[in-house]
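Folds vary. Our protein:
___
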Amino acid sequence: MKPLDPATRALVIELDGGACQWPGCEHPATEIAHLHSRGMGGTPDGARDHPTNLMCACWRHARYTDGETGDGSWAEYADAHYRLLGRQARHLLVHPDRLAYARAEHLRGLLAARRSWADLPNPT
């Protein structure tokens, strides 16, 4: 896997203010997370490393975007998804592929509402 282009990394940090973008999290970002991960099929448009598929995340929420529990329990992982997705999370938690897609699209929608996409390059 190739590393993220430094210019793209800098742009995402600028767009997100260096803060974790998972709703309700107030931790500083420690990494750039892919919303649609390669392990779950990548992005619908194939632009895996485009800023519309990236967000700043703290360590724990970067793990969640990858479908991992990180250092927490399954209950914490499930609770984070209930808060993010509401009641639909109950059905999605038993289908990791569907959960990954719903989580990524929900986060993309939240980011689109906060970010100005006008200055972003087109996905290539």
